[in-house]
Amino acid sequence: MDSSSLNLDYSNYLPSADALPESLKKLSLAANGLTEIRLDHLLKLEEVDLGYNKLTSAVSVPATLTSLNLEYNKVSVAALDLPGSLVSLNLRHNGLGPSGARLLAPKLSGLSKLKFLDLAYNNLGKQGLRALLVVLPSLPSLEILSLDDDDDVHRAREDHLVDDAASACLFC
User: Fold this and answer.
1) Helix, strand or coil, per DSSP, at residue 25
2) Which fold would CATH assign to domain 87-172?
3) What digits encode the pLDDT tens for the residues 44-61?
């Protein structure tokens, strides 16, 4: 087993975060019922999967992180500190709503390396979409933006809130 990777998905036993090896580069703690986690002491950590938990409070991660999966949680965007090294961010099914999208937008603006952003199934609303559209120009590396199954995305297109160029990126 690679000592730089650790998969504890669906685990009956979870060590405290302080007991995790400092050499970890990849960590998966999906589907463990976690409500909070601090990983900022793992300075070599690059990829973290915390999907399908019950995270609501701040998630502390190191500045070295390139991939963060928080799908199917209820993470508080206000308390979310996103490192500038992120290349992939998955916030699918987090119940962000328009207010969460408005809080998230300024946090995204510093992520110049971000290539993948999944905000699907968050009921972002028109106000949330507008906030995200404003920040898109500050994400030069963004290749994929997923907003699947948000009725307001389709209404935004119909109401001409986005032009064809933005539409090509947003609705792919």
Assistant:
1) coil
2) 3.80.10
3) 999 999 999 999 987 899
